[in-house]
Amino acid sequence: MVEILPRKAPPLPSWLKILFYVLTILLIGVILSFFLLGHLQKKSLATISNLKGEISKEKTSEKISQEEEILSYQKKIKNFGLLLEQHFLPSKFFDFLEKTTHPRIWISQISLGPGEATANLTGQAESFAALGQQIQILKSETLLKKVNLTKISLGKKGEIEFVLDLVFDPKFFK
Asked: Which of 1, 61, 72, 95 has the fewest CB within 10 Å, making it most exposed?
């Protein structure tokens, strides 16, 4: 049988009503925030463009040229710093040599390779004992990684002629 009188719909649970109102308020808040943030963004962009205009009014051609000059000097200083970091100081080697050379050793030729942290010494020793002591002195130095006696011979007057190859710590020449 068909009912002619409509029945009342069952009431919604209270948690569903609360959820509906919370979500509605949240939706309205999001929409208002969207328009508020859009307005604030336009206002900020206008302020920024006004400030840029004021800055450009304050800049004269003289100030602009000074700025460019300062920036070029800044770039040169930065480049100089890079060059200085890569610069080798071979003078440290001579202080090292003066400190570590045996009194009975005469060095006649020096060949430095600061980029490779190497040195080649040609010289004469009074005796084999003096040459041995010189090699021991060099081997005891912490700045040296390697000491090689590459050539040894007797000279015309009985002195010992030698060639030493020294390999330094790469940080030694910097």
From this structure: 1
